[in-house]
Amino acid sequence: MSSETAAPASVSTHILDTSVGRPAEGVALTLSVRSGSDGAWTAHGASRTDADGRCKDLPALPEGTTHVRLDFAVEEYFGSHQHSTHQQAEEQQDAPRVRDSGAFFPEVAITFAVKPGEHYHVPLLLNPFGYSVYRGS
């Protein structure tokens, strides 16, 4: 199938707060797109993670998109969940007893290449002091 007749690429994501072993609900994110490595970024969509930490409502990518950037606003999430996260961590045997306030990374920006007709699921494993991301299924 040529790129002219291929279905548009699509993106979904979810966030797991690994500091408590639960989905990260209510994290705001924006999706930006560009065509070519030197193209300008254009905002294309915005959403918030649901109770399962998932964001399933991002729009299909415009034709010609070669790169996508997901920007996760995690500082607000950790600020609003600081008390409950700390309390849950204390209940876990191996969890650290003292935490800094907020998050070391106030935002997480993930940039990746896309091809027409493919779906990209990009999970974010998050804690106040680090994160990991991968291409899921």
Automatic annotation (TrEMBL):
Catalyzes the hydrolysis of 5-hydroxyisourate (HIU) to 2-oxo-4-hydroxy-4-carboxy-5-ureidoimidazoline (OHCU). Keywords: Hydrolase, Purine metabolism. Coiled coil: none annotated. Homotetramer. One of its GO terms (molecular function) is hydroxyisourate hydrolase activity. It catalyses: 5-hydroxyisourate + H2O = 5-hydroxy-2-oxo-4-ureido-2,5-dihydro-1H-imidazole-5-carboxylate + H(+). Belongs to the transthyretin family. 5-hydroxyisourate hydrolase subfamily. It is an enzyme of class 3 (hydrolase). The gene is uraH. Transmembrane segments: none annotated. This is 5-hydroxyisourate hydrolase. Its EC number is 3.5.2.17. Residues 11-136 form the Transthyretin/hydroxyisourate hydrolase domain. GO terms for biological process: purine nucleobase metabolic process. InterPro entries: Hydroxyisourate_hydrolase, Transthyretin/HIU_hydrolase_d, Transthyretin/HIU_hydrolase_sf. Pfam families: Transthyretin (PF00576).
